[in-house]
Design goal:
- It is a single chain.
- This protein is mainly α.
- It has a two-stranded antiparallel sheet with strand order 1-2. A two-stranded antiparallel ribbon has the order 3-4.
- The two termini are 17 Å apart.
- The protein is 57% helix and 8% strand.
- It has 2 domains: 65 residues, no CATH class; 156 residues, Four Helix Bundle (Hemerythrin (Met), subunit A) (Up-down Bundle).
- Strand 1 and strand 2 form a beta hairpin.
- The protein has 8 helices and 4 strands.
């Protein structure tokens, strides 16, 4: 969870400009304070509580970074209430599917949860694996598409009290997502290089090693501020 919060703060710092610097700095300060509390957590509920508090600070600041007609103040889902939240939900679902596949390839049952509850046979371990990749992949892709004018209000359609993406909007985000996943990087893990997709599969393999041998320390991916 520390890796997720760290990547969220990095993204806020990267995307803010002079007009949003104060709100981004305030959110980052609050989130870093919450991250410092993680080592003292004694239960998964406490960890998830801190994660939720960090999200409460993060998403309003993230929403303020969008172009004026796409800004939002809170994370909404089931249903999403605006275009950017709809885009986030759409790509989180795509990413979750890749996490399920990566865990199966590594020999793990995606329904076996560590942080997320494993009730109802949902892919709880895939949700755990997904956490640090949300800001690293999805939030970055959606923000870039919205801020560069590739994701526009015309890509929103009303549905059941919420907002869903049109097929054209889905295509815009899928294109950005795939380009992001195919981007090569090095230094995120020691002695390892490749696309972000390869890093996702590598993290699944490292998760196996940590589960089989709890003495092995789990670390998230490095992402330079």
């Amino acid at each position: 969870m520390d890796a997720k919060i760290s990547k969220q703060t990095i993204l806020l710092r990267r995307l803010c400009d002079p007009s949003t610097a104060d709100s981004a700095a305030s959110a980052v300060s609050a989130m870093e304070a919450l991250a410092r509390m993680l080592p003292g957590c004694g239960t998964t509920n406490e960890v998830m509580g801190l994660e939720g508090a960090a999200a409460t600070a993060y998403f309003p600041a993230f929403g303020e970074l969008m172009l004026p007609d796409l800004r939002f103040t809170t994370r909404s889902r089931q249903p999403p209430l605006d275009l950017v939240n709809s885009g986030l939900s759409f790509l989180y679902t795509i990413l979750l599917g890749e996490c399920v596949t990566a865990l199966y390839a590594a020999g793990l049952d995606p329904a076996f949860g560590l942080l997320h509850s494993d009730k109802d046979r949902r892919p709880s371990l895939a949700l755990d694996l997904q956490e640090e990749f949300r800001p690293l992949i999805v939030d970055q892709v959606v923000a870039e598409a919205a801020r560069q004018g590739r994701l526009r209000l015309e890509h929103a359609r009303a549905d059941g009290g919420g907002i869903l993406l049109t097929k054209a909007g889905q295509a815009v985000l899928l294109d950005g997502y795939e380009r992001r996943m195919l981007r090569r990087t090095r230094g995120a893990l020691p002695d390892f290089a490749g696309t972000w997709r390869r890093h996702l599969y590598r993290q699944a393999q490292r998760l196996v090693a940590t589960i089989l041998d709890p003495t092995q320390q789990w670390t998230g991916l490095a992402w330079r501020p």
